Amino acid sequence: MKRTVVSLLVVAVTVSACGSIRDSRMNPLNWFGESRSQAPTLGQISDTIDNRALVARISGLSVENTSSGAIVRAEGQTPSAGWWDAELIPENFGRPVDGVLTFRFVAAAPREPVPGTSEALRTLTAAYALTQAQLDVTSSIVVTGGENSRRARR
User: Fold this and answer.
1) What is the sign, positive or negative, of the torsion defined by CA atoms of 96, 21, 70, 83?
2) Residue 129 has pLDDT above 60, yes or no
3) Strand 140-144 vs strand 100-108: parallel, antiparallel, or unpaired?
4) Half-sphere exposure of 140 (CA within 13 A, CB side)
5) Mean pLDDT score of the chain, rounded to an integer?
6) What's residue 38's pLDDT?
7) CA distance 32 to 12
8) Can you tell me the distance from the alpha carbon of 108 to that of 149, in angstroms, rounded to the nearest whole number?
9) Strands across the sheet with 123-131, in order?
10) Distance between CA 143 and CA 38 in Å, rounded?
């Protein structure tokens, strides 16, 4: 009888701890939390020449885990409608500096003005796939725009 009671008590305590582990930093699904806005930071880009402009304002950043690493997804607001060819370009040749992996969010401006001022028409989304090897040496990810940057930390 004592074994049954002790076993039930151990199972009950273990199951009750599942909720706290789900929200803890030990859970790999929670490694990159909510992003925060900050002042823009710019570093050395790479040897790639790119004439696209920085997206005006970074409005969202998320890091979504995959089976082979993660996908960095950023949303940005442009000054007008019609911007195209959005891309996240890694700085520092794609290597983290002190654990910080930095991207520039760039897009090509429209050749002719496009009417429309709604926020939905001015929103761009870009994504970048990271490998598990890149994630192993990364503690935070920063996406930089013209007016601000957003950071997601582990």
Assistant:
1) negative
2) yes
3) parallel
4) 13
5) 83
6) 57
7) 30
8) 19
9) 57-66, 69-77, 123-131
10) 10
Question: What are the structure tokens assigned to 69, written together?
Answer: 């690493």
Q: CA-CA distance, 9 to 74, in Å (whole number)?
A: 46
Identify the helix (H) or strand (E) that includes residue 130. Answer: strand 123-131
Q: Quick one: how many helices (H) and strands (E) in the chain? A: 2, 9
Beta-carbon contacts of residue 92 (< 8 Å; ≥ 6 apart) = 43, 44, 46, 102
Phi and psi angles of residue 2, each rounded to the nearest 5 degrees, phi first: -65, -40
Two tokens at 80?
Answer: 């007008």
- Token readout for 45 is 């880009």
Only one residue has tokens 């970048």, namely 128
Q: Residue 93 CB: number of other CB atoms within 10 A?
A: 10
**Mean of the pLDDT values across residues 96-119?**
90
Question: Distance (Å, rounded) from C-alpha 43 to C-alpha 30?
Answer: 28
- pTM here? 0.72
- List, in sequence order, the alpha helices (H) in 59-128: none
* Separation CA 50–CA 91 (nearest Å): 12
CA distance to 62, 82, 98, per residue, from 71 (Å): 8, 25, 21
